[in-house]
Amino acid sequence: MPLLALSGIRKRFGANLVLDDVSLTVEPGEVVAIVGRSGSGKTTLLRCVNGLETIDDGSIAFDGKPLPKGGAGLRELRRQIGIVFQSFNLFPHHSVERNITLGPTIANKLPLADARTIARDVLRQVDLEDKISAYPAQLSGGQQQRVAIARALAMRPRLMLFDEITSALDPELVGEVVNVLERLATSGMTMMLVTHEMGFARRTADTLVFMHQGRVWEKGPPRELFAAPKTRELETFVRAVLQPHDQ
Amino acid sequence: MSRDFEWPEFLFLLGALRWTVVLAIIAFVGGGIAGLLLALARTAAIAPLRWLAAGYIGVIQGTPVLMQLFLAYYGLAVLTGIRIDPWPAVTVAFTMYAAAFLGEIWRGSIQAIPRQQWEAGAALALSAPSQLRHVILPQAFRISIPPTVGFLVQLIKGTSIASIIGFVELARAGQLIVNVTFQPMVVYPIVAALYFAVCWPLSLLALRLERKIDAALGLKRHP
């Protein structure tokens, strides 16, 4: 059974149909990379999965159960689905440690001592143990994003969503974040990523989803899709974004 | 025959300053509690709550504090059927006045926190009250320090209008002393200096608090 099943999803912003009949499944341990031009609905799709956006039509099932609309049910779902945002969205008034322990202590009602152990553990996973007492403003963009990943991991999620998490970073800081992502993918984490890192998508993703005009335009193993696009749109996209070293 | 301005007169002013400060503290604390509720109502998801709070704030901000003071004074008298002490009237009027202004200041502070902060809290499975308490309000508090202290200073000085219904605070006490000493150019500068002595340290304290918070968080807001 797939961990996540999206079926016939439609989403409108006013008169604008941003998601048009999107169906997609994610198996446990699968890494799905979603690519496409800006405005193709990638980010909206991701945000629908953990209920940050509502859908107008279709259905989302996580672990075989339909997505709750709100309240305690939606919170329970969010304990199991982590998300990392493009703009980090760390809490600037909390230390790195408190950023990470907030979810486990407040939402999961763990004792603080246990949450602190988890914090050290997830910070080790992103190589930032020494920044445990720092505040977000004292970190570089890449470090902040790694803390944001650690914060999401601390909830022990079964699915991780990544929304263009390297897009706001200076080029020289992209590598450290991509490294963390690759390690996470290798560890067996189920992941859905919206990304512009084509090299990463090609190396790491099991499935590449190319979105265009709110639809899943093409879908398949990344190497096949990059090597032989079936549609003109993907061909144009691949030519525009693929760097020589990605080929 | 007139008296000179000497120690007893100065002590009288100091005694009146106490009532100015006490009135301001009551209005600030009471208005602060009510103002926080108003700010939360103004930013609530439930529309009637927003309208109710906006209506209250609109009425209080749109009418002179003098009228509110009269209404509280004569209103309480009519309600209780007896001529009442100015104390309850001034505390009720200034508390209601402070609630409206603090509510509006804090609404702005809450709304100044980016939507993404709410989302980040929601994504960590925090309930809406938890998002507010652990994510939004602490950040809104930092933003609200300068306008809040600015309003507190206005409030302290504004209490002088309470003298109109016979409440003897610092400004009224100054008038009384002038009436017996005929030395306005001695008394009023001293009255002004006493207001200054209360208000200025507050502004300084607020600035220090801001700097302390920003330094602790590694923020570089002060060039």
Helix-strand blueprint:
The complex is a heterodimer of chains A (247) and B (223).
Chain A: E1 4-13, E2 16-26, E3 31-35, H1 42-49, E4 57-62, E5 65-66, H2 71-80, E6 81-84, H3 96-107, H4 112-125, H5 141-153, E7 159-163, H6 171-186, E8 191-194, H7 198-204, E9 207-212, E10 215-220, H8 222-227, H9 232-241
Parallel strand pairs in A: 3-8, 3-9, 6-7, 7-8
Antiparallel strand pairs in A: 1-2, 1-4, 4-5, 9-10
Helix pairs in contact in A: 3-4, 3-5, 4-5, 5-6
Chain B: H1 7-42, H2 47-62, H3 65-80, H4 86-111, H5 115-123, H6 128-158, H7 170-181, H8 184-216
Helix pairs in contact in B: 1-2, 1-4, 1-6, 1-7, 1-8, 2-4, 3-4, 4-6, 5-6, 6-8, 7-8
List key phrases describing it.
heterodimer; A: alpha/beta; six-stranded mixed β-sheet; four-stranded antiparallel β-sheet; 24% strand; B: 223 residues; mainly alpha; MetI-like fold; flat
